[in-house]
Design goal:
By secondary structure, this protein is an alpha+beta fold. The protein folds into two domains: about 1-40; about 40-95, IHF-like DNA-binding proteins (HU Protein, Chain A). It contains three helices and five strands; from the N terminus they run H-H-E-E-E-E-E-H. It has helices at about 5-15, 20-40, 85-95; strands at about 45, 50-55, 60, 70, 75-80. The strands form two sheets. The protein has a three-stranded antiparallel beta sheet with strand order 1-2-5. Strands 3-4 form a two-stranded antiparallel sheet. Strand 3 (about 60) and strand 4 form a beta hairpin. Helix 1 (about 5-15) crosses helix 2 (about 20-40).
């Protein structure tokens, strides 16, 4: 699902809101999650999952094109872990 599709679905389910209002709400939610992760904190949405930041150490990698070694610097990356309810619903539809 694209962000625009999410906005369309929310707007269709909440006809009393304008598209601009829905866009603003979605932007605020995403920006809040982003700002929290920037601070290194965790965002938990019960039943859905949790966003957190993980630290990756620097390492020696391999350039797939040339086969040569390259240095990969340390970095922090976003990580998402699904909630129990979400995992169960996906498993039920795929099983």
């Amino acid at each position: 699902m694209l962000k625009s599709e999410l906005i369309d679905k929310l707007q269709a389910e909440n006809e009393h809101l304008t598209r601009q209002d829905v866009e603003r709400v979605v932007a605020v939610v995403f920006e809040s999650i982003t700002q929290t992760l920037e601070k290194g904190a965790r965002v938990e949405l019960r039943g859905f999952g949790a966003f957190s930041v993980r630290h990756r150490k620097s390492r020696s990698g391999r350039n797939p094109r040339t086969g040569g070694n390259v240095f990969v610097p340390q970095k922090h990356v976003p990580f998402f872990r699904t909630g129990k309810d979400l995992r169960a619903r996906i498993d039920a539809t795929r099983g």
